[in-house]
Amino acid sequence: MKRRMLLGSAGVALAAPMIMTRAAVAQQTGAETSMDIDHAMPPETHRFNVGSFEVLVVKDGARPSDNPQETFGTNQSPETVGALLEANFLPADKFVNSFAPVLVNTGSDVILFDTGLGEGGRANGLGRLVEGLTAAGYKREDVTTVVITHMHGDHIGGLMEGGQPTFPNARYVTGQAEYDFWVDPARVGTPAENGHKGVLANVQPLAEKMTFIGDGGEVVSGVTGMAAFGHSPGHMIYRLESEGRQLVLTADTANHFVLSLQRPDWEVRFDMDKAAAAATRTKVFDMLATDKLAFLGYHMPFPAVGFVEKIDQGYRFVPKAYQFEI
């Protein structure tokens, strides 16, 4: 017994220096044992089907900001806006705005709806659309049509890359009213001047390949435009329909899944005609709620797809689950 105890004690004594040595090494080479690894991850993507149409959503990026009331509910007090956010388990003093361009493969056309922030956003970790398309197996050359829902910078920033069209084989579709407003020299000297410059740089060079549509205009079979003015003078949304399934791409009709939907009458900083935008929100989301249609909103929480149900003052956002998988 004494011999066994002695050998056991010797084993512990021999092991102890080894353990201490490993600890010492870990302290000296903290970088080698750290879990703070710089992963080169592609942007988030999400793929699902609407009938025979394949829909791919790409997260072009996300941007956190302070003071939600300076953007949403600008005609409300900060306390009122903060209280609604907190009631929905969100912080009262911060919000995150994400950007979700959409690719639709109909089988005969590959249609991209909006192009994100492009090269101008990359310094801030944005402008990742092409990267996401590549990760999902699409090349820039595959895109046959680019649809521009409206011409704010976060939707047209990815049209050009290094002074050349990003999608070299594409034709372009946009609303006539939207284009006419932004290229008009009358924008110079107004709050819309920067937007005017962005359109001259990114959109106007593509005008020869552009088709202009209005309410009810068809992009291709199964893809129809709908006027949804207010957020911008010619803001358009698009209905996809295939094999009895439907999805409405609502673009910027609503910009926040709580503040814009639960209180559609609240004013939004980036809505150019605030009264018209509020009326459009109510009209569009009443339709979606009544007809129980799925929608994809450009600034909704990624993957930006869901439904709405009518509640007392507005609508409740219900994120998509497995509805399109069965």
Please characterize this protein's 3D structure.
The chain has 326 residues and is of the alpha+beta class. It has one domain (45-319): Ribonuclease Z/Hydroxyacylglutathione hydrolase-like (Metallo-beta-lactamase, Chain A), CATH 3.60.15.10. It has 8 helices and 18 strands. It has helices at 2-28, 30-33, 78-87, 129-135, 153-156, 176-183, 193-202, 274-291; strands spanning 45-50, 53-58, 61-66, 94-99, 102-105, 110-113, 145-148, 160-161, 164-165, 171-175, 210-213, 218-220, 223-227, 236-242, 245-251, 294-297, 305-310, 315-319. The strands form 4 sheets. It has a 7-stranded mixed sheet. A hairpin with a 2-residue loop joins β14 (236-242) and β15. The model is unreliable at 1-26 (pLDDT under 50).
What is the secondary structure topology, with strand pairs?
Layout: H1 2-28, H2 30-33, E1 45-50, E2 53-58, E3 61-66, H3 78-87, E4 94-99, E5 102-105, E6 110-113, H4 129-135, E7 145-148, H5 153-156, E8 160-161, E9 164-165, E10 171-175, H6 176-183, H7 193-202, E11 210-213, E12 218-220, E13 223-227, E14 236-242, E15 245-251, H8 274-291, E16 294-297, E17 305-310, E18 315-319
Parallel strand pairs: 6-7, 7-10, 10-11, 15-16
Antiparallel strand pairs: 1-2, 2-5, 3-4, 5-6, 8-9, 12-13, 13-14, 14-15, 16-17, 17-18
